[in-house]
Structures are given as structure tokens and as C-alpha cells.
Amino acid sequence: MAVIVVDHINKTYKNDKKIQVGVSDISFSVDKGEIFGLIGPDGAGKTTLIRVLTTLLLADSGTASIDGHDVVKDYKIIRNSIGYMPGRFSLYQDLSVEENLNFFATAFKTTVAENYNLIKEIYVQIEPFKTRRAGKLSGGMKQKLALCCALVHKPSVLFLDEPTTGVDAISRREFWEMLQRLKKQGITILVSTPYMDEANLCDRIALIQGGKILVIDTPEEIKHNYKRALWAIKSSDMFKSLVDLRTFDSTLSCFSFGDVHHLSVRDNTITKETILNFLKEKGHTNIDVQPISANIEDCFMELMTKTTPTNNLQVHV
Length: 317
Description:
Elements: E1 2-15, E2 18-31, E3 35-39, H1 46-53, E4 61-66, E5 69-70, H2 75-81, E6 82-85, H3 97-107, H4 116-126, H5 139-151, E7 157-161, H6 169-184, E8 188-193, E9 204-209, E10 212-217, H7 219-224, E11 230-234, H8 238-245, E12 251-257, E13 260-265, H9 272-281, E14 288-291, H10 296-305
Parallel strand pairs: 3-8, 3-9, 6-7, 7-8
Antiparallel strand pairs: 1-2, 1-4, 4-5, 9-10, 11-13, 11-14, 12-13
């Protein structure tokens, strides 16, 4: 059963007489108890969409509903039944951990004790700091406090806008473990993130860029649908090899991924020896070429190249 339904949502912004697209013709649904991820870079439209769904922003056109309630007509009902964790830490920095939690419980006409079982596993990690001001907490602790405050009224749907941005790797892993436990309690979760590796932790994902959804499916199915041959390549001069590989006749796309380049080729019959010989002719040494399987970021880049010229995409070396 669909808990979140989005139907042809559009939102634009006017800035200095220019019109900027927030989201364009977005449609999808999220089932009860599902972790659904909005995956894309900054400016892709993730926050705009979440703000529409949490009744904080009016769409220009289209409709959306949460648990059957329209986000415009029934905004008061929705605000009482959802939890929302914005991208920026938005709790009261001068209040203590305990005071923030009690404040949000009171605002929703409940108590911490009434729904303590829902937040217990999270709160016990920050309870030793309950008298510390929220503004003095570490990034990971702020994250846990914000999640507790979003859950204290026992929402049926949880919206998380880039919750792991700016926190360390351990806190990121712990946070996703917490989301998996919340899912088991029947809470529907819509989470946005710019981290492609987090896509694999969702039940389904929507890859989004420029306000438009590129694809919606399970992470496994998206990776399975990548049909191109893909190679991981290293050499003694990584920048020059990137430039040279982009001039290779069979190159469809080539981007840097960490300490290697990922090369996608038009012809799946291209061999390792062909690529090695090409790079040797260009003067490269210490060359390593290995066939690899596509990850979510490879799939995202392939979908991007269908709509954006390669030379317009930012490359990180």
C-alpha cells in the first residue's frame, strides 16, 4: 500500500528575473515500511521535493499525499503524523539535549516517556550528555538528537534531508543501522543523500538531477541494467591518462572514481590488451586495467551523459 504518493509535481523559483527549476514533473510512490532514497548531487531538487511533501513549500502544479492526506488541504493532519529532519541542524542550540527532546514532545502533545521505546536505542547513546547544550554536541551526536526529536511523537512517515552530510564515516554507518531498525517498526522512510554508496542501503531509489528523476528502481536492478563493458584503469600519470582515454575511439565515457578511472566503452568486445596498447602508445607506464561491475555512481553518470555533454560534467581527479 502506497503511503507517499507524488503525482506530476512541479516547482520553479524566480531569481533576478530568471526562472530556476526546482523539480520538474516528479511522480513516484513509496510503500508502507519502505526506505526510499532520493539520490543526487547538491542542487538536484531533493530538498525542494521534501519541503513540498512536508507541507513547507507549495508546488506550482501537481498533487501529493501522505497516508491519503493531501499536502495542501490536509497540511495540519500531515504535520502531526510525520517526522522531519532537515539538512541543517535546526534544534535549539542553547537548550540542552534533554530540554530539546522535552520541548518537541510537548509541542506534539505527548511525552518522552510515552514513546520512549521508539527512541531508546538512539537516546541511550546521547543520554550521558543530556545536560549539554545542543550547540556543543559533535556532528554525530547532533544527528542522533535531531532524529530523536523527529521520532518523539511516533510518526508514521519519516523525512530525512541529507541526514549524514558532514558527519564521520562511523556515525554514517550507525545512522543507517538505526534506520533499518526503525523500518522494522513499520515506519516509512524517505531519505535524501548525495552519497551514492548509501543508495545500496535503500529498498528503492530515485536518481535525480536538474529537478528531474532519471530512474526509479531497486539499487540491484539499476546496476543490473548497466549493459556496457566497464574498466578500472590506473597509470603513472592519472590526469594525462584521463585526457587520453577520452580521445580513445571506443570511449563512451571516462570519469575519475577515487584512485582509478572508470572507462565505459561503446563496443563490449574491446579487450584489455587493446586498452593497454592504446595507453602505451600515448607514453603511459605502470598501467593497470581491470574489468569491473558498475556501481550506482557509474549508472548515474551513464544516465547523465544521455542528457549532458561529457565536457560539461565536473570531473574530480
